[in-house]
TrEMBL record, chain A:
Molecular function in Gene Ontology: branched-chain 2-oxo acid dehydrogenase activity
Reaction(s) the record says it catalyses: N(6)-[(R)-lipoyl]-L-lysyl-[protein] + 3-methyl-2-oxobutanoate + H(+) = N(6)-[(R)-S(8)-2-methylpropanoyldihydrolipoyl]-L-lysyl-[protein] + CO2
Name recorded for this polypeptide: 2-oxoisovalerate dehydrogenase subunit beta, mitochondrial
Cofactor(s) it depends on: thiamine diphosphate
EC category: oxidoreductase
InterPro entries for this protein: Transketolase-like_Pyr-bd (IPR005475), Transketolase_C (IPR033248)
Origin species: Allacma fusca
Annotated compartments: Mitochondrion matrix
Keywords tagged on the record: Mitochondrion, Oxidoreductase, Transit peptide
UniProtKB/TrEMBL annotation, chain B:
Transmembrane residue ranges: none
Residue ranges occupied by any Dehydrogenase E1 component domain in the UniProt entry: 61-352
Lineage: superkingdom: Eukaryota
Enzyme class: oxidoreductase
Name of this chain's protein: Pyruvate dehydrogenase E1 component subunit alpha
Catalyzed chemical reaction(s): N(6)-[(R)-lipoyl]-L-lysyl-[protein] + pyruvate + H(+) = N(6)-[(R)-S(8)-acetyldihydrolipoyl]-L-lysyl-[protein] + CO2
Keyword tags: Oxidoreductase, Pyruvate, Thiamine pyrophosphate
GO BP, sorted A to Z: pyruvate decarboxylation to acetyl-CoA
Keyword Oxidoreductase: yes
Function per UniProt: The pyruvate dehydrogenase complex catalyzes the overall conversion of pyruvate to acetyl-CoA and CO(2).
Co-factor requirement: thiamine diphosphate
NCBIfam families referenced in this protein's UniProt entry, alphabetically: PDH_E1_alph_y
Species: Allacma fusca
Assigned EC number: 1.2.4.1
């Protein structure tokens, strides 16, 4: 036991060193160490402008409100922009009857959204933090997800989109850091999406808003300001359910979503530099449904899979993917699938840097699958 | 500014008071509070309240300590020594201090995330509060909770999820009744949380079983960035228990809060079931540190409250005008509070964080596996039990 703990401490120390590589401030506790990798646009994307994630989300909602007279945006404090400024300026532009504050009542917000959507409005609800979504869990899981099924398609709340900020932010502690995607992925009837940056967020959010199924759109809150890139100005949608191969490689498939995608891109470079291993980096993008075809094809090529997510290990989405991969790619696998995740502990306030699946832990997992 | 009739018994030998030289004090004074508003009650608390000199000095010191501690917390946050979430109580001191003054030791409290002041009143030292805010091991939760999660004997915390503490309060009240320990529970929430559905579930159970619970809506006017009028169909929060008797009280008057709590507590203790208190108060800072608190209200509004309704200044004036204390005495209290908090800040800052072995401490009472699964399927960390139970043995 002592040895196990010893290696844990060592890995934690490595982490701290890793942190200082990108941070000039070493006296302040730092975490969520990643370097944002912007998306590149193609010429067919047309005119573009520089935006961060909250601006891209704002822009998508602006387009949705402008192009769909039934669309409404609501949630706690959204009238003056919301805590992360995602809805800033929208009330001034579209009026108080279309962009409005709700009381602090998440279950009510979700239920109201379901009712609105069922009656023909496009409901775009904000839950202020994903950690606060649990009072609304019943409405989302029992009402939103099952509405269409239980009435044989006579009614549905497909025009409901629930946006909510998720994931680690550096100092969020127990109730401002969680990644609840797996809870919802367990519920047939919902679609769940996590963008990795502004350009994806805009297109995916518009797809969710216009989708005829209720969607939960999880926005990694640390990216709101730190993720900046060129975003197409036009109205565009990105298909749901499709993963993106961001870096092609031969030896190991690295799979993540949200912020973790950026950690993994750095890990791929580290693996190349230090281990001479080429990694294929995939952003899952869509949690439910998840794009098994892209993942299976990649694993059949590389024979090795490392999945990394911030949520805890047990019953995280990584478990589902690992199980599916071993069923479908068994004869191609060169090593057991590795998961690199948060610990099975509540999200710790003072230990955030040690809790997260940082690049060194991911690199360790790559070593293990390569040396297996 | 306030109507008070002073019943002064001047000149009593005050030999137990050693800090200051003997002098002619009023040993007690009586004041008129603003009228209470009542819901489903024939009679309410007395608007004539009397306080002795010792208690008045104590309440003054408590309010000043909370104010000073919150100022220190705000500064530490700006220095980036405190990270994450931090909700300050400045402006609302009279609510907690007034309630505490009418509690007995068997009573319990549960509140939301604006918890620093209550934590101190329930027995945690300023170092215990500030070190917790800084994530240091001298904190009352060894730095594991931070701003929103502080605990001590009979204080069930600091809770992060809006409204979630109120059903717990009903449960704690049930336990008081079941055990017959003579205690009652005070559950606090804000005007924002008053619209959470689970409050109404708690009200119903509490009245159904006549639980000894005081539900306290600290109405500071704003649920995060939305004013009460924009969030609540009925802003008379003291009426919102429908079948539960309610009292509106001026939450900026520590003596009115003390009296209303005494009244409500007596009803609970007599087995009459729950009471709902609404304390009309004000918060000077934003909802949390990321909210400058000026985008949904004017600076003038805040300034106006500070000047005309501040709970500490107004109580100070009462004490001076009724000769309960001299300006010099109060100044000495201010100085000693400042010194205490300055020392607490230093001590907290020089404290260390808990060790890594605590990452997986106290998740379970009995962890069926010796380890907690970690960030990879091969990584594990030993589960340990470190803390000891405070309320149950």
């Amino acid at each position: 036991m002592r040895n196990i703990l010893g290696s844990f401490v060592k890995s934690a120390v490595r982490h701290v060193k890793g942190c200082s590589e990108f941070s000039s401030v070493t006296t302040i506790r730092h975490s969520s160490s990643f370097t944002y990798v912007p998306d590149t646009l193609s010429s067919s994307d047309g005119e573009s402008t520089r935006m961060n994630l909250f601006q891209a989300v704002n822009n998508a909602m602006d387009i949705a409100l402008g192009s769909d007279p039934t669309a409404v945006v609501f949630g706690e404090d959204v009238a003056f922009g919301g805590v992360f400024r995602c809805s800033i300026g929208l009330q001034e532009k579209y009026g108080k009857d279309r962009v409005f504050n709700t009381p602090l009542c998440e279950q009510g917000i979700a239920g109201l959204g379901i009712g609105l959507a069922t009656a023909g409005a496009t409901a775009i609800a904000e839950i202020q933090f994903a950690d606060y979504i649990f009072p609304a869990f019943d409405q989302l899981v029992n009402e939103a997800a099952k509405f269409r099924y239980r009435c044989g398609n006579e009614f549905d709340c497909g025009k409901l989109t629930v946006r909510t900020p998720c994931g680690a932010v550096g100092h969020g502690a127990l109730y401002h850091s969680q990644s609840p995607e797996a809870y919802f992925a367990h519920t047939p009837g919902l679609k769940i999406v996590i963008p990795r940056g502004p350009a994806k967020a805009k297109g995916l959010l518009l797809s969710c808003i216009r989708s005829n199924d209720p969607c939960i759109f999880l926005e990694p809150k640390i990216l709101y300001r730190s993720a900046v890139e060129q975003v197409p100005v036009k109205d565009y949608e990105i298909p749901l359910g499709k993963a993106d191969v961001l870096v092609e490689g031969e030896n190991v498939t690295l799979l993540g979503w949200g912020t973790q995608v950026h950690v993994l891109q750095e890990v791929a470079q580290l693996a190349q530099d230090r281990l001479n291993v080429t990694c294929e980096v995939i952003d899952l993008v869509s949690i439910q449904p998840w794009d098994y075809e892209t993942i299976f094809n990649s694993v059949r090529k590389t024979g090795r899979l490392v999945i990394a997510h911030e949520a805890p290990l047990t019953c995280g989405l990584g478990a589902e993917i690992a199980a599916s991969v071993q069923s479908n790619c068994f004869l191609h696998l060169e090593a057991p699938v590795q998961r690199v995740t948060g610990f099975d502990t509540p999200f710790p306030h003072v230990f955030e840097p040690f809790y997260l699946p940082d690049k060194w832990r991911c690199l360790d997992a790559i070593k293990r699958v390569v040396e297996y | 500014m306030f109507s008070s009739k002073t019943v002064a018994r001047v000149g009593r030998n005050y030999s137990t008071w050693k800090i200051w030289p003997k002098k002619s004090y009023s040993t007690e004074a009586t004041f008129e509070t603003k009228p209470f508003k009542l819901h489903k009650l024939e009679e309410g608390p007395s608007t004539s309240v009397t306080i002795g000199r010792d208690e008045a000095l104590l309440l003054y010191r408590q309010m000043q300590t909370i104010r000073r501690m919150e100022t220190a917390a705000g500064n530490l946050y700006k220095e980036k020594a405190i990270r994450g979430f931090c909700h300050l109580y400045s402006g609302q001191e009279a609510c907690a201090v007034g309630m505490k003054a009418s509690m007995i030791s068997a009573d319990s409290v549960i509140t939301a995330y604006r918890a620093h002041g209550w934590t101190y009143l329930m027995g945690v030292s300023p170092v215990g509060v500030l070190a917790e805010l800084l994530g240091r091991k001298g904190g009352c939760a060894r730095g594991k909770g931070g701003s929103m999660h502080m605990y001590t004997k009979n204080f069930y915390g600091g809770n992060g999820i809006v409204g979630a503490q109120v059903p717990l309060g009903a449960g704690i009240g049930f336990a008081h009744k079941y055990k017959g320990d003579g205690g009652i529970n005070i559950s606090l929430y804000g005007d924002g949380a008053a619209n959470q559905g689970q409050l109404f579930e708690a009200y119903n159970m509490a009245k159904l079983w006549n639980l000894p619970c005081i539900f306290v809506c600290e109405n500071n006017g704003y649920g995060m960035g939305t004013s009460a009028e924009r969030a609540s169909a009925n802003t008379n929060y003291y009426q919102r228990g429908e079948y539960i008797p309610g009292i509106w009280v001026d939450g900026m008057d520590v003596l009115a809060v003390r009296e209303a709590t005494r009244f409500a507590r007596a009803m609970c203790a007599e087995g009459k079931g729950p009471v709902l208190l609404e304390t009309a108060t004000y918060r000077y800072h934003g909802h949390s540190m990321s909210d400058p608190g000026t985008s949904y209200r004017t600076r003038e509004e805040i300034q106006e409250v500070r000047q005309s309704r501040d709970p500490i200044t107004s109580f100070k004036d009462k004490m001076l005008n009724s000769n309960l204390a001299t300006a010099e005495e109060l100044k000495q209290i201010d100085t000693s509070v400042r010194e205490e908090i300055d020392k607490a800040v230093k001590a907290s800052k020089s404290d260390s964080e808990i060790g890594l072995d605590e990452l997986a401490a106290d998740i379970y009472a009995v962890n069926l596996e010796p380890v907690i699964r970690g960030v990879t399927s091969l990584d594990t960390v030993k589960h340990v039990n470190i803390g000891s139970r405070v309320n149950l043995n």
